[in-house]
Write a structure and sequence with these properties.
By secondary structure, the chain is of the alpha/beta class. It is built from 24 helices and 19 strands.
Amino acid sequence: MEKSINAIRFLGMDSINKANSGHPGIVLGAAPIIYNLYTKHMRVTPNKPLWFNRDRFVLSAGHATGMLYPTLHLAGFGVKIQDLKEFRQLNSLTPGHPEYLHTKGIDSTSGPLGQGIPMAAGMALAESYLAATFNKEGFNVIDHYSYAICGDGDLQEGVTQEAMSLIGHLGLEKLIVLYDSNDIQLDGPLEWANTENVKLKYESMNWDYSRVNDANDLDELNKAIEAAKLTDKPSIIEVKSIIGFGSKDQGESSTHGSPIGLEETALMRKRMDYDYPLFTAPEEVYEDFFKNTVQRGETALNEWDNLFEDYKEAYPELAQKLENIINGKLDIDFDKVLETAPLGTNEASRVTGGKVLTKLSNVLIELIGGSADLTKSTKAKGINGDFTKDNRLGRNINYGVREHAMAAIVNGITLHGLKGFSGAFFVFADYLKPSVRMAAIMSLPSIYIFSHDSVAVGEDGPTHEPIEQLSMLRTTPNVNVLRPCDANETAFSYRFALEAKSTPTVITLSRQNLEVKKVTNYEDFKKGAYVISDIKDFEGILIATGSEVGLAIETQELLLKEGIKVRVVSMPSMDIFKYTSKEYQEEILPKNITKRVALEMGSPDLWYRYADTVLGIDRFGVSAPGNIAIEYFGFTKENVSKIYKGTK
């Protein structure tokens, strides 16, 4: 065992030294933790790395890839010695931080401290819901753990504390966090920044806490993990380690993020009796991992395969639903489930969204989520009651006022194969943007629902009125922002979000009523922009999103009374439209029609790619009734008509 742990350490050191970049301190200190986890507890198999009932692992301390990649190499996950030699290099299988699906055996991207534990929590929540939904007596087809390794920095991040508070409240007993506690941070001793009583803190959050006094004591570590599996709470195991263990500077912050170097590593090899060349591990180490990780995982997989075959015979309908989730297949006829709203329908898109979400949830067992203490306002609510310790079938998650953790947990739920969604006021996109960004990086189809999407919020004023948030999210790569104009576009938005395979979707909804003024269809909508109201021989174009589409149509009618003919284009997603063909873009926005006005109650800058004149808002909002705020910023048909006529 010691030789296997040292193999992880020195393969990690060799990788870091060759790259002249990386984090040796945690590799040397925490190698026993990851070794014990993979050889004694994790049920995984390199032959089927995405096996649905595998244990999940999140390296929350994402900078510790120097110990993760050697572990995956030794366990046969396709990471070769050459890959270790290419650590942190362009297009290698061993990037600086773990990247989901880029390397076999990586269950999530991690790196920004704090994101890992909430994602692992989302995985554990998904496991709990799925187990309650599908397991029957004698058929525990869903039965696995979610593990995370974190460091001191993770536990100082607010997003982690939000998540740990919620998860303790929910009592998700299959989440086990291994805390590499070495009392050192990048800048120096932990005590410079933190003097909390870890035990009392997490016990007060309803976590099971235990402590292992020496990371190298594998027996105690193993006992702690086994005990954690027997509790009815999430578990945090504080494992005391020495950063940079075995090096001349062990225990010092200098070992956190600077390579130790070839000379010192060679001396360490002698001191730690690891007399093997660079990038080499003895055969007995490979045998250790083959027997205790690979074969153990294969046995678990084979047992599960046999169990699932029997399950399919005993519960064919449930088995089919579970297989759909495993394969990412949506078993739904959207045209039947989502009825077309007739002309004249007039309701807030947040209200429509709530109705649509309920209809979809009644058909799709995998749809689960909730809001950050705003369900009555956002209408983003799951069905079947609240998800609690006593009701694991409830699909409404009461996140409390924890926007950042909510979005990160949604990512964990989505990583597990469910359709996770969150709900919040749009202005609070600022609080959860880092998690949206993580979903985009991982190409996860997470769903983020926001209501109160403009200054029409009204009396709550500038702090609650989004201005720059649309632009912020639209400029984030691989995120689709949808801003529907009426009940039908709202239903289309939810359908689009559910059909997405590799892109998170942001849906922004109105507080105020939006009238269905024109007939629309999904085929046009999903192109990102389309002609919603046309007229023959038009001389100009009004482009709008959301509530401003109705305003554009009203302006079109007003201008027509003066003999001025304009086309109205609804652009529910600038992100989608910009990737359509040049031919389609020319069809919707002909180049010869240069007289264009774009309307949106938000930052105007991005609209100049489509129009020379933009009616937007480039300042913060006002506290006034919504209709007064809208008028104050010039979003009336009379003003838009005046602006259009004043353009060249």
